[in-house]
Amino acid sequence: MSEDKYSILLPTYNERENLPVITWLLCKYLDEAGIKFEIIVIDDGSPDGTLDIAKQLQGIYGEEKIVLRPRAKKLGLGTAYIHGIKHATGNYVIIMDADLSHHPKFIPEMIVKQKEGNYDLVSGTRYSGSGGVFGWDLKRKIISRGANYVTQILLRPGASDLTGSFRLYRKDVLQKLVESCVSKGYVFQMEMVVRARQFGYTIGEVPISFVDRVYGESKLGGSEIIGFVKGLVYLFATT
What we know:
Blueprint: E1 5-12, H1 19-32, E2 36-43, H2 50-61, E3 66-68, H3 77-87, E4 92-95, H4 107-117, E5 121-125, E6 132-134, H5 138-155, E7 167-170, H6 171-180, H7 187-198, E8 203-207, E9 209-211, H8 222-238
Parallel strand pairs: 1-2, 1-4, 2-3, 5-8, 6-9
Antiparallel strand pairs: 4-7, 5-7
Helix pairs in contact: 3-6, 7-8
């Protein structure tokens, strides 16, 4: 498609079943589209042997495609991105989950969208156009929709999906946003979009289908929901 290179940051924790599948899908769809890329696996000391699987994948696909940058323990999503950016050789960075909830088939669409509008950030959205969520029960859908609706009213971010974590950034833009954010956990993704608006960065959107994880347990719990509410109040008061 171009001489651009895309560094895909994959923070992992207990994803030994999912990592081989997401890696295969990434290589399939990006190679078919002629996209130059690398996958940077940032494993935070997974006790299930995720890193061992990542090493096997590196042996299969090569060190240029699979870059391993593990850490000793869980240190948070924001610091995982900072760690990954330091090792990224692409001029664009893609962030996504390793649990198969984000399908790599949407990445070429995100790249095309970025080129069309010369956007600083392109976000995959579940809440616009043909986007949607599959595999969630009604309660979780209501919580997610409700949180997004309240956030839209309070923060007016200029994007339809604030809590999603499937995005394409210019590398320098992601670096500045990550360094400016103070939130932890799920609020971090929301703050990234709010700060992007604050700094005057342009945001494009591509509708995506979000699928609940197939293997492993969801990391969303009561403490994350409380943290989300606190983070929303903080951002409303400070932006």
